[in-house]
Write a structure and sequence with these properties.
eleven-stranded mixed sheet; alpha/beta; 5 helices; Spore Coat Polysaccharide Biosynthesis Protein SpsA, Chain A
């Protein structure tokens, strides 16, 4: 049996997929992908990478608008869980890339019998690769850590929610169970910093000032009724695949 399965739901991720697949190829035994009906070059990119690495691809067109309750996210993610053959699961979204240290640290953690759930520091880039958004009161969405890897076949599933579904075990939140915090390895979230910076209908609570989801984001918004948008300068490094992209694009 393979050691680690990466699972990934995809919908129009042509920008992030090359970076993502180059990154996970360094530590994954298989990548299980469910495409929800991409109309860009996502499928072409995935099939190209199937010649280089172990990728299992499924296609099932989603119903309704993406990034809304029309999209049955929990069903898609649980389907991927059921297909994964690895002893461990890594649920990493297309715009998330691990620190390169994952390659050397993860194998040792997977051998420890007293560890089942791994939680990682999480960095949300905001506007560009040198600015990060931080967690504030009343806006828990911007978490400082995420559970992204766990032992397979222990009963972890996604809650039956249409969008932004959390993880559960035995009907309880995954956060009710012991987990190992991997402080040495950071997970970088580039959704709002690279590529288009925002996707259709993905303007959470109008945080980037696009009331009709068109045009360019307004990164100057700093205050909402319930919370503020707090940012700070990022002084750390980037994974090597992102470093190469930034250098190639002279960013």
């Amino acid at each position: 049996m393979m050691s680690l399965s990466v699972i990934l739901p995809v919908l129009n991720e042509e920008f992030f997929l090359p970076l993502y697949l180059e990154s996970v190829s360094e530590f994954a035994d298989e990548v299980v992908i469910l495409d929800g009906g991409s109309t860009d070059k996502s499928l072409e990119i995935i099939r190209d990478y199937q010649q280089k690495m172990n990728i299992v691809l499924f296609e099932k067109k989603q119903n309704g608008l993406p990034y809304t309750d029309d999209w049955n996210e929990s069903a898609a993610r649980n389907f991927l869980l059921d297909q994964a053959k690895g002893k461990w699961i890594a649920a990493i979204d297309a715009d998330e890339i691990f620190d390169d240290r994952i390659r050397t640290i993860l194998p040792g953690l997977m051998k420890k019998r007293n560890i089942n759930i791994l939680e990682f520091p999480f960095i949300d880039f905001w506007k560009d690769p040198w600015t990060i958004r931080t967690n504030v009161i009343n806006d828990a969405h911007w978490s400082n850590s995420k559970i992204r890897i766990w032992r397979n076949h222990i009963g972890i599933r996604y809650q039956e929610q249409k969008h932004h579904c959390g993880l559960e075990l035995n009907g309880r939140s995954i956060f009710d169970y012991p987990r190992h915090y991997v402080k040495e390895v950071t997970l970088h979230h580039y959704h709002y910093a690279l590529g288009k910076g925002i996707k259709f209908n993905d303007n959470r609570r109008y945080d980037v000032g696009m009331l009709d989801n068109t045009g360019q984001p307004n990164w100057n918004i700093t205050k909402h009724d319930l919370y503020e948008i707090r940012t700070e300068a990022y002084t750390g490094g980037h994974p090597k695949v992102v470093q190469k992209y930034l250098a190639d694009q002279k960013i």
